[in-house]
Amino acid sequence: MRIIYGVNPVIEALKSHPEYFKDILIASGRAGQAAEKIKKLAEQYDIKCRIIEKEEIEMLAKSPHHQGVAATLSEFKYVDIEDILEKWKSSGERALILILDCIQDPQNLGSLIRTANASGVHGVIIPKDRATDVTPAVVKASAGAIEHTLISRVTNIATTIEQLKEAGIWVIGIEADSKQNIYSFDTRTDLAIVIGSEGKGIRRLVKEKCDICLSIPMKGSISSLNASVAGGIALFEVLRQRK
Length: 243
Fold this sequence. Notes:
It contains nine helices and ten strands. By secondary structure, it is an alpha/beta fold.
C-alpha cells in the first residue's frame, strides 16, 4: 500500500488510475470546490471517502503539506524499458527519454517528473540503488504528473544506456564543465538526456557511456544548477528546437 497526498496528486490519480485506490481521506472541515470534485470522482468510481481529523492525515502523509486530502493506493507500478521504447515508437515522434542518475531529493525527483511530462518525454529512467524512488513526497512534488508518466526503475544505468543506444537513441549527459553547450547542439534526433545527482553529478561509468556531454552556459558566480532546473532547461531546449 502507498499513500499520496495533496489535491492535484489525488485528482490526477483518480482520473488516470481509479483502479489503484483503496480509499480517500478528507480532513474534517475540508470544504470547497477541490474537496467536492474529489468526492464526486470517488463516487463515480465507487471509491470510499473517509472523513478523519487533519492530524491523522498529517501522520499518514508524514508532511504538513497535504491540503487536507490523502489517499491509500496499491503500490506504484514501474514499467520496463521496453514499455518506454514502445511508447516512443508508436508515437511517431523523435525519442525523448530522461535518465536520472542517483537523484536523492524527493522534491527534485518530483519536479523533474513534472517537467519531463510537460516537455513530452516518452519515459523517465531511475536507478534502484542510491536514489529516491516514488514516495508520497515525490508524488506531491510532481503535482500529479507521475500518474501520466512512464517510469522505469533499473538495476544498472550504464547497461540501460547501452540498450537505448542499440535502439538508435543518442545519449546526452548534462555536465557543467563540458566545453560544448546544449544550445550549439542539434537535438532534432532521437535522444535520451542524463541528469546527475545533486552533489556529484553524473557518475563516471555512466558519463563514459554517454555519446556526448553538454553544458548549460551561465554568467553568475555559481558554477552549477539545481538538478531539476538543469533538467528543465535541457528538456525545453530540445522541445524548442523540435518546434
